[in-house]
Amino acid sequence: MELWKLGGELVPVYTRTILMSCAFRGPETKPCSMLPRSLGSAARRLAAASTRARASSSTPAARRPCPPSHGDDEAGDDESLPTPHRPGPEERRRGEHRRDFSFVTMASRDHSVLTRQLLEFQHDTVDEVGAEHDTLMDLKARFMDFKQRNYVEKFSNYQNLAEQQTPKFMVVACADSRVCPSSILGFQPGEAFTVRNIANLVPPYEHGGSETSAALEFAVNSLQVENVLVVGHSRCGGIQALMSMKDDSTSGSFIKNWVSIGKSARLSTKAAAGNLSFEMQCTHCEKESINSSLLNLLTYPWIEKRVSEGTLNLHGGYYNFIDCTFEKWTLVYREGLEGGSKYAIKNRSTWS
Ligand SMILES: [Zn+2]
């Protein structure tokens, strides 16, 4: 984590957004009340110094939201945009300034300009701590609780994480809101590199690039994780979509095109459990697709190589949120297994 020296006191870099706002905004800038007391005092001194510096400058450029050194192109963008309205206290109380922000956002397709507007908006939000009530205020309260109970308490740990991450797990989980792997398995920041997609599917190497294959490449080759864990779950809507598909149907639906990756699991489910109810077939396929994904992992040459070398383990997991149980198992991959197969399941157990 970067530290800024201020009056003999080191200020962690997570104050940067506020400090940047202080540097580029008007003299009314205030220190962020979200900061711990010791850090807040440093930020207040910086804000005061920044205010004095701006007060000594009367040039309009000194109050621009971003430094003028960003180039001629951006200067041109400034001219094409409406001048951001700076709300007074009464407008802030009524929340009318938000319409100004929306107007400016919609008026511009330039991301750099949007970023500038966002910095200004963040600053306004900081100024209005305790005065706003919107749908994100609950998230703010949770973030502040995380900051006080976790970040501040484990500050040195987060400083180390700011320098590097060395997770031992790569997790592939479903995007379903009920199955957050960090919540159910207790992964802390830095412990699991995670990608979530519809139905927690791993496409085969031949499928080509996807966000899942990119995440695998980074986790396995760069982070050198020791375990890949594919986590499925009960009542998965993605698996229901897969099991509901007509045979060989083509569709413009992104969902159907994605879940068709699991068609081999669907076929084996139909063969093994086709006589059961649709719900029971889906339950079967939820687990079958995990094994299909584990086998697909081995189609990636750099994963197959590390598994063969014994430096990478492949695990399956199934979270049943109906009865709150978790099954886990490990895929064995080597020549000469029983029955002449190269694949086997070991260490299967259920946590209940
Ligand atoms: Zn799901």
Report on this structure.
- The chain has 15 helices and eight strands.
- By secondary structure, the chain is an alpha/beta fold.
- The chain has three domains: 134 residues, no CATH class; 28 residues, no CATH class; 186 residues, Beta-carbonic Anhydrase, Chain A (3-Layer(aba) Sandwich).
- A six-stranded mixed beta sheet has the order 4-3-5-6-7-8.
- Strand 1 and strand 2 form a beta hairpin.
- The longest helix is centred in the C-terminal third of the chain and has 20 residues.
- Bound molecules: zinc ion.
- The site of zinc ion (ZN) has 7 residues, from helix 11.
- This is carbonic anhydrase.
Low-confidence stretches: 1-84, 95-108
- The CATH architecture of the largest domain is 3-Layer(aba) Sandwich
The strand order across the widest sheet is 4-3-5-6-7-8
Number of domains: 3
Distance between the termini: 40 Å
Oligomer: single chain
Keywords: Lyase, Metal-binding, Zinc
Biased composition (Low complexity): 43-64
Catalytic activity: hydrogencarbonate + H(+) = CO2 + H2O
Binding site for Zn(2+): 174, 176, 233, 236
Write the layout of secondary structure elements.
Blueprint: E1 3-6, E2 9-12, H1 16-24, H2 37-55, H3 72-80, H4 89-94, H5 97-107, H6 111-127, H7 137-151, H8 155-163, E3 169-174, H9 181-185, E4 192-197, H10 211-222, E5 227-233, H11 237-244, H12 254-259, H13 263-273, H14 278-297, H15 301-309, E6 313-320, E7 325-333, E8 343-351
Parallel strand pairs: 3-4, 3-5, 5-6
Antiparallel strand pairs: 1-2, 6-7, 7-8
Helix pairs in contact: 1-2, 1-6, 13-14
